[in-house]
Amino acid sequence: MKIIILGSGTSQGVPKIGCYCETCISKNPKDKRLRTSAYIEIQGQKILIDTSVDFRQQMLNNNITDLDAILYTHHHVDHILGLDDVRQINQLHKKYIDLYGNNLTMEEIKTTFRYAFNEEMIKHLAVPLIKINKIENKNFKIRNIDVIPIEVMHGKLPIFGYRIGNFAYITDCSRIPETELKKLKGLDVLILNALRIEPHPTHLNVEEAVRMAEKLKPKKTYLTHMTHDINHDKINSGLPKHIELAYDGLTININ
């Protein structure tokens, strides 16, 4: 399995418009963060997690030209609004793309991108060609790949993280119910959100994410969905050796 972190930033990205803090003016490329998303290749399948607002740029930056499926964590703007650019994948490979997410997420996508379901627009290939797949908190398959949803809380909103093999991806999480924690045991790699240094009502902060990683004990944890409060080199140097900050373009291989 190969994983690429396409974006490691929050809904505002880093640098933030109009900000001249140390991180926003940093020349370190690891302090430049597009909106959160990840790409997975496994057994010939190409799977995306979330179509961030920066989807097009992320595809270009990483020379990704094909997708088989998209897993959605939830329906917030920074996680879905790049969907229209899936048209290029449709046209290149003459195929529809399967979308997977919980009922609310899929309904919100159908509302936000209602033009994508217009038969006349579909006929002229003027919209993203997509197939909606509503999933529950039960294991399912993408072709021959087993996927385990992890239902976590984003404030009061239940959203999905996902486990594939010994890899799991969780973003925009403020709490993981005890019933879901058992699904995250025995991981090689965990990607987990860590919004900022200070506490936040709907996201884990760095301290909480570190505590969660130490509780779950994956071999390696990478923190993502970070604001400009987090300067890569300063914060990374203070983390336990098995926990690191993710960055845009980080590539992880799992045998």
The share of residues in helices is 10-25%
Beta-strand fraction estimate: 25-35%
Write down the secondary-structure element order.
EEEHEHHEHHEEEEEHEHEHEE
Strand order of the largest sheet: 6-5-4-3-2-1-14
In CATH, what is the class?
Alpha Beta
Q: From the coordinates shown, what is the CATH architecture? A: 4-Layer Sandwich
Q: How can the largest sheet be summarized?
A: 7 strands, mixed
- Gyration radius, in Å: 17 Å
Mean pLDDT: 97
- Structural class by helix and strand composition: alpha/beta
Number of separate domains = 1
According to CATH, the fold-level topology is Metallo-beta-lactamase, Chain A
Name of the CATH superfamily = Ribonuclease Z/Hydroxyacylglutathione hydrolase-like
Helical segment count? 8
- Uncertain segments: none
How many β-strand runs? 14
Structure, briefly:
The protein has 255 residues and is α/β, with parallel strands linked by helices.
Polypeptide structure, described:
The protein is an alpha/beta fold and 255 residues long. The chain has one domain: Ribonuclease Z/Hydroxyacylglutathione hydrolase-like (Metallo-beta-lactamase, Chain A). 21% of the residues lie in helices and 28% in strands. It is built from eight helices and 14 strands. The protein has helices at residues 55-61, 77-80, 87-93, 103-112, 119-123, 178-181, 206-216, 232-236; strands at residues 2-7, 37-42, 45-49, 69-71, 97-101, 130-134, 140-142, 145-154, 157-164, 167-170, 189-193, 220-224, 243-245, 251-253. It has a seven-stranded mixed sheet with strand order 6-5-4-3-2-1-14. The protein has a seven-stranded mixed sheet with strand order 7-8-9-10-11-12-13. The longest helix has 11 residues, at 206-216. The chain is globular and about 55 Å long. The N and C termini lie close together (6 Å). The relative contact order is 0.17. The mean pLDDT is 97.
